[in-house]
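Figure caption, in words: inputs first, then the predicted bound structure.
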Amino acid sequence: MELARASGIHIGKAGGIVSDKFLRTSVENVFTCGDCAESEHFITKKPVLSALGTIASRHGMAAGENAAGGERVAAPVLGATVMRLFGLEIGSVGLTETQAKDANLDVIAMQVKYPSLPHYFEGGEEVPVRMIAEKQTGKILGAQILCREAAALRVNLISTAILAGVTVSQFADSDFCYSPPCSDIWAPEAIAAQTIMRRLKRS
Ligand SMILES: Cc1cc2nc3c(=O)[nH]c(=O)nc-3n(C[C@H](O)[C@H](O)[C@H](O)COP(=O)(O)OP(=O)(O)OC[C@H]3O[C@@H](n4cnc5c(N)ncnc54)[C@H](O)[C@@H]3O)c2cc1C
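Bound structure (flavin-adenine dinucleotide present):
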């Protein structure tokens, strides 16, 4: 950052190097990506420091391509994360309820706990999912998940849904796969979407 400041590159409100959607900085022929760069959050449109290897890699590829004359738009930033702690996987994508309210969004958040496999099949686990959706449109804005395995797959699925502007109704009715040893008829995240959908219909 010292180098960036010394060179007169514009530093933004979040404390990172500012760029346009092609990752061009305020100095000609200088591009930015990674932990030192600010990005626009896909939902709030506010500048954020993502500080994630996922975004650093995607923006690094785009910045490299653009430095060589390309016109690749920087990948959207939703903050999809997953980690394992003492055998428990913790996944998050998009906004939490607090972040959504801080961004003045009118949201509904519901938490469910649903088994990953049918009750008549051994194995599986109760998966808590908290989902956040915009009240007016029903669009999914975020989710947090706790489970022993496959949190990354659930986070990635919801991430794609958010980026595509999918509503809780569309997500709840999605053609997800089912087979007792692999997945129940309803995935926990689909149950979370269904719960919000019903609540929105009642309000
Ligand atoms: C402990 C830890 C765990 C993480 N886990 C995850 C994770 O699970 N998932 C995830 O998405 N992200 C994770 N991250 C974040 C991720 O590592 C960073 O967001 C990503 O590496 C940022 O990439 P970058 O290219 O901006 O910086 P870096 O990867 O830090 O690369 C910067 C490079 O520049 C070099 N350098 C520094 N100064 C100079 C200099 N003066 N001259 C020449 N070279 C220099 C450094 O040696 C380094 O190689 C983790 C970070 C940490 C610290």
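The beta strands are 39-40, 47-48, 81-85, 88-94, 107-115, 126-134, 140-147.
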